[in-house]
Amino acid sequence: MPYDPRIHHRRSIRLKGHDYTQPGAYSITLCTQGRQCLFGNVVKGKMQLNYLGHIAFNCWEAIPDHFLHIELDTFVVMPNHLHGILVIIDTSVGARQCRAPTTERQCHAPTEQFGKPVCGSISTVIRSYKSAVSKSINIIWQTKGQSIWQRNFYEHISRDQKPLDRIRQYILDNPQRWADDPENPQHNPDDCEFLFDIPF
């Protein structure tokens, strides 16, 4: 069976007892608030980013500039969500020092706890990314404190090469499958909540 996030690990609860600062490949799915299509449109099976989509794209590409222990793998920005694989390559003290501007204090706890973010953990990386995108978009729309994203995110820890390759292929094929994607608001038109009146 091919990888499908609706079936395989589409959950927002972190794996109990797992240290999310450990090396490995973490596939991430982020959805916009209300699943509003903020980032562009899919045309003939290809994603065409608008200005906000380029912000989401560029901030994702900049993650390794702020978190030196993170490498990017396959990712795609879709109209109302993002799929991406983040790879933790090193957990040594020097590599785990976060350079991203955040309001959280540096932590030394081994596992993520509510209200106590762990420096360098996947949750901290995603929190920083979501904050950077939201801040940039709020400046453009002259809004204050508007969250662009749903509160949580979905993740899957890839331990073997074959499952990781399936996830990579799923991400690459995502624009071509947009018409059938459950995140496509055409499937749930009554559930749409619009953050902004976007003319595109």
Task: Give the key terms.
two-stranded antiparallel ribbon; globular; alpha+beta; 18% strand; 200 residues
Note the run of SSEs as H and E. EEEHHEEHHEH
How many alpha or pi helices? 5
Report, as a whole number of angstroms, the end-to-end distance: 36 Å
List unreliable stretches of 5+ residues.
7-15, 93-115
Strand order of the largest sheet: 4-5-1-6
How much of the sequence lies in strands comes to: 15-25%
Rg over alpha carbons = 17 Å
Structural commentary:
By secondary structure, the chain is an alpha+beta fold. A hairpin with a 2-residue loop joins strand 2 (40-43) and strand 3. The strands form two sheets. The protein has a four-stranded antiparallel sheet with strand order 4-5-1-6, with helices on both faces. The longest helix has 20 residues, at 122-141. Helices cover 26% and strands 18% of the residues. The protein is built from five helices and six strands.
Care to give the gist of this entry?
The chain has 200 residues and is α+β, with helices and mostly antiparallel strands. It contains 5 helices and 6 strands, in the order E-E-E-H-H-E-E-H-H-E-H.
